TrEMBL record, chains A, B, C:
The keyword Acetylation does not apply. It comes from Sus scrofa (Pig). PANTHER family: DUDULIN-RELATED, METALLOREDUCTASE STEAP4. Residues 21-107 form the Pyrroline-5-carboxylate reductase catalytic N-terminal domain. One of its GO terms (cellular component) is plasma membrane. It is found in: Endosome membrane. It catalyses: 2 Cu(+) + NADP(+) + H(+) = 2 Cu(2+) + NADPH; 2 Fe(2+) + NADP(+) + H(+) = 2 Fe(3+) + NADPH. The keyword Transmembrane applies. SUPFAM superfamilies: NAD(P)-binding Rossmann-fold domains. This is Metalloreductase STEAP4. Residues 251-394 form the Ferric oxidoreductase domain. Its cofactor is heme b; FAD. The chain crosses the membrane at residues 202-220, 251-271, 292-317, 348-374, 386-407, 419-442.
């Protein structure tokens, strides 16, 4: 679009006779893909190139000029050039003055340079309005239209008007702009596409530690112990039996760890008598990745279910049952039916199924499109009430599974109790503490603290002033 | 819309020299969180407070003034104060005149006051442009950025310009504004965050009733009857066997009830000979919660699958099979293989699996993000064609499960047939009626009615006038 | 923001005294529903009708005039009339001149007319600004608010200003506009609601072919062969055993076919020495429906899991195990426990479970709302790394399932190996080729080609010019 004096129509509503012209510096893959997409959406495109006569593969309908000429054609220039080559722009200071310069670049490593590419650009050309955008979109996605990964385009810049112009373009291309504020956010935006599941790191590491612990614990009890005492080769248990000890115990522990930070926060608030002091960083981080922790726990629970359901198909199980029956038949001995055992067996299965069912429900409601449909009251009802019910059911499932063998000395091997006894420690403690916290005598002051009341109002004025506000 | 003259810039594109200033009345949690978020998105914030000198905890960069001074700094004021304290605004009538006043308040109960807070505010200050917004967003979500629940911000107000301004702010904060019309919608918007799954109430109650019915029915047949006649203690069946009667029967009945209102509506339209008369309210409401009914049915089906798959792990089942084999071996009697039994057993399992598979597919396509990717033809194909196929498979699964025992007098206990016979009544009736409805001689007039034709055109003019229109 | 002088308002911000008036031509279902929705969102509506005095059922608050009068009331006219009746508009050429005319029509068949309805309209009325919109939204959805299918409204038109106006209306109604460019896109937009899963056609046909092949292959080996040689009636295997051969083999083959086009593309790029030549059309199409192929494969895998888990409940399996035990008991012969068999049995189950688990994870990340939350690096990590791991696990599962029987002559029937041997051909070949491709000596040139390097740079200038650009 040519420079508009202030006496014309609003910028987003170009008079129909003229299309908005956008200039793209650089004719690499990304520049070409973006140019093609913008042409399709009704923009007029001018490419700026070092050797305009030699550029090829450009989308038909686009003009190619040298940098300076191209820049004069539009007041918005999209820069699809590597940061290392930004120097050439210093020769164009004059023509770029007052124009909108869109930085789409990415780096190869997180925090590769002391300042973000966009901030570096803004230093090079103080007269231009630098806007960071489009760096999260891939050239291939633009070309194929298969925007399977994010449609979100993070936009930041110091000039609200320039930012608004760029966000209008983003919207016209069928993408979703998200304003991240001033150019100071550019560093974060540039790091974003280089991240690999940052919120999942802590849950993955934690579950890896738990898995390794339960693995060695089970190997000692189920493989090494029988080998030492009975010379029995139990190594085949490594394929199914031992994973089916690791997965449920890890899942239960992780599920308890989802609700532990909430309880710790409540205790801290009770102790401090105020909610207006920040939690320690580790607690903050823990609270922010509870959803990920819960989903990892759900993964382990799902594996546990599958590992359990294949039990009757296993050769080992079929052999053992066949063998026991044959031995009994030869001895002409029938088994009596013990009702209490039937009760225990059916109860732990039923508790496990119900717990897993609620767990799957929790997982479904954490899908972005589902959680986006519910209001806060509903979301908290599901995540808190249903979450605790899930934890209670899963803990009860494990307790009943233990049943009469629970802490029975005959199940100890080298003084080690079964793995599920270890896994029960955190959930049981948590549930007891939570139960104490919801006793009226403790719940009341806590609720008051959460509504803004303070025991030792250091921030008296705020307490006075803000207590009537939302 | 009239053509505007061309001598000013649009409101959303502020000249870059000055940031837009927004005033926030109230320094409670929500006001502070909103202020911080808006500062981050490039707004300039002025807090209005009773005691500006004593306010603390406010985000750095924000100014704090008394109400009157703060209001003069901006033409848009966000009011984060409880409704009970709105009176103080009457002293500011003059300074608030012509300004945009955003009401973000919520109540504690649904329909707590005769009029909505926003309408009450508009009555207090007739000169201000009141806009309702932001009441569905929590302070915690704004602070942490973890907008797991809805990103949708419902906006309503009588002044389109004021509403547009507020919607621009909402969009800039990365949220999604949704225009709900005039201030008359404020009541609904204020009730929204207080609701707890309103569309799920009817399905939950209905399934609770069905569960209770099938529970007592099964207890009478499977626990009380054997106790009375054989003094057998079957109580352990309460854990798995009886739930596994309740769940599939409830699921099948609910699934049929998903398709029943559609059939009733068709019969009603055929009877009335027009589609231009409203359905009774109960039918309307039933039709609107079909999706929820179906999802509840899927939940029960999922539980039924899990309860069925654990059967071979149950102590009771293992004991029974072991015992039978031992008895046979002692009697030296081999069982003959009955091919027809193998056919029946495998068929009902296969039908059940295929029905469950389609049911899960239906559930997945009802996820908001999936259903948003399909067009109407595809959506109706899945929900109607696949839906009926699911119902047919599940009904057939139950019929074949019954197999030869179906209505066999020996299965009657106190004249009560098995629970699945009861559960088959609605689906079988429905399928027969549906089959009649798709007979050409009935389908043809129905299709014509649905295209706007009327048998007794009371609304003759409309039929004449509109029949060529979409 | 400072107060703006009041002598103009931007186009989107109508002065509050006057509501924007929109005219709707046609009083059919769609026109009435749209009118009602727009009234609720604060627009003023005028219906244009042939017989304004005789129109009924119209939403209260709307005016009804004849076409010409109605058109004069607004500069935006929404045309809800079938294409066959567009002729009447020619009488209104003058009054429609310069106005925005929104075409919402759909046809009954794909490509029913040589040109799209919107283009036809633009030819009829060259002076009007024709915009195509709203054709993907159903009247019922507008009325009930249950927008379960797409909320996306595709918009196209040659006039940017007119398009922008229509997109503002779309947004105000709570829908999501998507700019598809000039009016040339109207044909595609009109065909869209008539499509039935176009991307799924190839995957469905392919899997149907595979299913039929594996069906007949299994029937020959498992039903016809035993009947011919042993006169055994194995037909009951058609219900579960044979589907449980068809499903896993189809799933494995389809999963391999998801990754085959990527490998073929890499070989083609290596052979051509450039990435700047288009792939053949069949390869392009294949690559674009990989996601659908993968999801169909996941469906078959899911069915395989269910069919496998019901094995121990089947009458046939229970009878066989019971019979074997009875025979053994009568013969007083105990089975020895073979550790290697236990290892094989447990390993193939464990590999299958882990493969299925990763497969489900892949499926979940392909949900639109989930894939929209991840960046490109994460998306490619999941779809490529995790995808190959899934393929390796599933192939290993099948290999170990074969175990010692693999290609054992005794398993050949009429020289036909078991079905899983056939299903292993493509995955094993693919994995070997992929392994060769990631050898450093081959991976290096491939990576350079993908970064833009060319072996025989026909497009030398582009290579020179673009290589420093993104």
């Amino acid at each position: 679009m040519e420079k508009t004096s202030t006496d014309t129509l609003p910028l987003t509503m170009i008079s129909s006779e003229k299309q908005e012209t956008v200039c793209i510096f650089g004719t690499g893959d990304f520049g070409r893909s973006l140019g093609l997409k913008m042409l399709q959406c009704g923009y007029s495109i001018v490419f700026g190139s070092r050797n305009p006569g030699m550029s090829s593969l450009l989308p038909s309908g686009a003009e190619v000029l040298n940098y300076s000429e191209a820049a004069q054609k539009s007041d918005i220039i999209i820069l699809t050039v590597h940061r290392e080559h930004y120097d050439f722009l210093t020769h164009l200071t004059e023509v770029l003055n007052g124009k909108i310069l869109v930085d789409v670049s990415n780096n190869l490593k997180i925090n590769q340079y002391p300042e973000s590419n966009a901030e570096y650009l803004a230093q090079l050309l103080p007269g231009a309005h630098v806007v960071k955008a489009f760096n999260t979109i891939s050239a291939w996605a633009l070309q194929s239209g298969a925007l399977d990964a994010s449609r979100q385009v993070f936009v930041c810049g110091n000039d609200r008007k320039a930012k608004q112009r760029v966000m209008d373009i983003v919207r016209t291309l069928g993408l979703t702009p998200l304003d991240k504020g001033s150019l100071m956010a550019a560093k974060e935006i540039e790091n974003y596409p280089l991240q690999l599941f940052p919120m999942w790191k802590f849950p993955f590491r934690l579950s890896a530690v738990l898995c390794v612990f339960f693995f060695f614990y089970s190997v000692i009890r189920d493989v090494i112990y029988p080998y030492v005492y009975e010379r029995k080769d139990n190594t085949f248990r490594l394929a199914i039996s031992i994973p089916n000890h690791i997965f449920p115990n890890t899942a239960l522990t992780l599920l308890a760890l989802v609700y532990l930070p909430g309880v710790l926060a409540a205790i801290l608030q009770l102790y401090r008598g105020t909610k207006y002091r920040r939690f320690p960083d580790w607690l903050d981080h823990w609270m922010l990745c509870r959803k990920q922790l819960g989903l990892v726990a759900l993964g382990f629970a799902f594996l546990h279910v599958l590992y359990t359901l294949v039990i009757p198909i296993r050769y080992y199980v079929r052999w053992r049952m066949n063998n026991r029956t044959v031995v009994q038949a030869i001895a002409k001995k029938e088994n009596p039916f013990i009702i209490s055992t039937a009760w225990l067996s059916d109860s732990y299965l039923a508790l496990g199924i119900l717990g897993f069912f609620l767990f799957v429900l929790l997982g479904i409601t954490s899908l972005p499109s589902v959680s986006n449909m519910v209001n806060w009251r509903e979301f908290r009802f599901v995540q808190s009430k249903l979450g605790y019910l899930t934890l209670i059911l899963c803990t009860a499932h494990t307790l009943v599974y233990g049943g009469r063998r629970f802490l029975d000395p005959s199940t100890l091997k080298w003084c080690l109790p079964s793995a599920y006894v270890i896994a029960l420690i955190i959930p049981c403690t948590l549930l007891v503490v939570k139960f104490i916290l919801i006793l009226p005598c403790i719940d009341k002051p806590l609720t008051r603290i959460r509504q803004g009341w303070e025991r030792n109002p250091k921030f008296l004025e705020s307490a006075l002033n803000g207590k009537t506000d939302l």
